[in-house]
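It is worth pausing here to work through a concrete case rather than discussing structure prediction in the abstract. The textbook approach is simple: state the sequence, then state the predicted structure, then interpret. We follow exactly that order.
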Amino acid sequence: MGSGQKGGQMDHCPEHSAHKMSIEQHDHRLDEHGKSLDALSESLAVLRVIEQQNQVRIDEMNKRRAALKAEPADKWRKASDYVLTGILGVVLGLVASNFGL
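Step two, the predicted structure:
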């Protein structure tokens, strides 16, 4: 037989001892990998929250940028409206003065 009894305990052959040690080592490694995966999952959850917060900030910045870009155009539009209104007033004044009004 591959194993004998000594003092009521079974002796394990070296091959079984090596297997047991290998299994224990693999179990330890699996536990460590599991802990690493748990830590990565937590980090990923935190990063997702940060990404959402950043996206909100980016959206707000894009809105402000669009408003700032539109501001000069609005100023020019208002200025051109005033100029056209002035020119129209002068033309209407001249026409009215020609008709004696």
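Step three, interpretation. Confidence is low (pLDDT under 50) at residues 1-10. The CA atoms of residues 76 and 82 lie 10 Å apart.
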